[in-house]
């Protein structure tokens, strides 16, 4: 007959000292210390105290409570970085994340797709949360910890060709209605160019903003240049009927971690990203989505 090991004989998910023997060792040490103390050998009992403490410290360090908690991953619908097609979440950032998990030896985890406003706030208030991918700038720097960059993104304003819009200076932007997603980086760019938030037609998400643009609610749509063709097609719009009329900015995209995430966790993630950059995997993903080569 084969002996069945007890369920609590070891700590699941660790490669540490088994739990049950550690408890037995601790019990024996405590019993011996008590016997020495009450039989007149208190000085020897004191010698055992550090041993008992070390057993407890080692047990705590290898217990589940001491392990880094799992990360929660959240994103939004933005082509070509993260978007749903036929019920499957895909895109540059999604594939990069999958490759990072492989390097880190982690199984795939759920990825939540939320409206940008909600995702941005969740990432700030909920510990162990990662939002991706996001522009890293001075306004956001202290709000998160960062791993990246994944790639460079150019942000532009798009207009209907039939409207005949020509913009040669930021001052001319005041003459047009501009739609944005609340808390999106494009709002930051526009405010810096002198457009107050009160003059923007704001939506809860990039998808909702696209729908409003399709319905003629505003004149200019801010969007990442590499994703605009796919985004327009997703709304049944012909990209040939639209054109880029102004460049807002060019920046790099990062994974952003809640600011209380352990530095060791962020470093491990960064090292995995650096590894797929070095082995050519990142470049292959960027080329697959036609977004150019990786930055050096």
Features:
296 residues, alpha/beta, D-Maltodextrin-Binding Protein, domain 2, 3 domains, 6-stranded mixed β-sheet, two-stranded antiparallel ribbon, 9 helices, 10 strands, 22% strand
Description:
The chain has helices at 19-38, 42-61, 92-104, 116-125, 185-192, 206-214, 228-234, 263-278, 281-288; strands at 72-75, 83-85, 88-90, 111-113, 129-135, 144-160, 178-181, 200-203, 221-224, 242-258. It has 296 residues and is α/β, with parallel strands linked by helices. The protein has three domains: 19-66; 72-147 and 257-288, D-Maltodextrin-Binding Protein, domain 2 (3-Layer(aba) Sandwich), CATH 3.40.190; 154-251, D-Maltodextrin-Binding Protein, domain 2.
Low-confidence segments: 1-23, 59-66
Spatial separation of the terminal alpha carbons: 62 Å
Please state the CA-atom Rg, rounded to the nearest Å. Answer: 27 Å
Strand content: 15-25%
State the name of the first-level CATH class of the largest domain: Alpha Beta
> What is the second-level CATH architecture of the largest domain?
3-Layer(aba) Sandwich
What's the overall average pLDDT, rounded?
Answer: 84
Question: Main beta sheet, described?
Answer: 6 strands, mixed
Give the tally of β-strands.
10
Quaternary structure annotation: single chain
CATH topology of the largest domain: D-Maltodextrin-Binding Protein, domain 2
Topology, element by element:
Layout: H1 19-38, H2 42-61, E1 72-75, E2 83-85, E3 88-90, H3 92-104, E4 111-113, H4 116-125, E5 129-135, E6 144-160, E7 178-181, H5 185-192, E8 200-203, H6 206-214, E9 221-224, H7 228-234, E10 242-258, H8 263-278, H9 281-288
Parallel strand pairs: 1-4, 1-5, 7-8
Antiparallel strand pairs: 2-3, 5-10, 6-9, 6-10
Helix pairs in contact: 1-2, 3-8, 3-9
């Amino acid at each position: 007959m084969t002996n069945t090991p007890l369920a609590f004989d070891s700590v699941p998910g660790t490669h540490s000292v088994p739990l049950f023997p550690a408890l037995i060792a601790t019990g024996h040490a405590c019993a011996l210390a008590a016997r020495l103390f009450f039989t007149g050998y208190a000085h020897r009992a004191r010698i055992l105290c550090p041993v008992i403490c070390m057993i407890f410290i080692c047990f705590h360090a290898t217990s589940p409570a001491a392990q880094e908690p799992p990360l929660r991953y959240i994103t939004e619908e933005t082509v070509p970085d993260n978007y749903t097609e036929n019920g499957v979440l895909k895109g540059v950032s999604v594939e990069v994340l999958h490759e990072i998990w492989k390097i880190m030896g982690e199984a795939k985890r759920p990825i939540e797709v939320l409206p940008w406003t909600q995702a941005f706030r969740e990432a700030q208030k909920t510990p162990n949360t990662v939002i991706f991918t996001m522009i890293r700038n001075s306004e956001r720097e202290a709000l998160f910890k960062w791993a990246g960059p994944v790639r460079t993104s150019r942000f532009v304003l798009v207009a209907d060709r039939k409207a005949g819009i020509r913009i040669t200076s930021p001052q001319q932007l005041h003459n047009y209605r501009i739609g944005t997603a609340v808390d999106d980086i494009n709002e930051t760019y526009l405010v810096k160019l002198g457009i107050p938030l009160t003059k923007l037609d704001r939506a809860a998400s990039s998808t909702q903003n696209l729908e409003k643009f399709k319905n003629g609610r505003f004149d200019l749509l801010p969007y990442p240049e590499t994703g605009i063709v796919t985004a327009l097609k997703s709304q049944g719009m012909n990209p040939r009927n639209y054109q880029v009329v102004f460049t807002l900015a060019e920046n790099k995209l990062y994974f952003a971690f809640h600011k209380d995430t352990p530095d060791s966790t962020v470093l491990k993630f960064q090292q995995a990203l650096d590894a797929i950059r070095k082995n050519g995997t990142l470049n292959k993903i960027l080329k697959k989505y036609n977004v150019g080569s990786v930055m050096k």
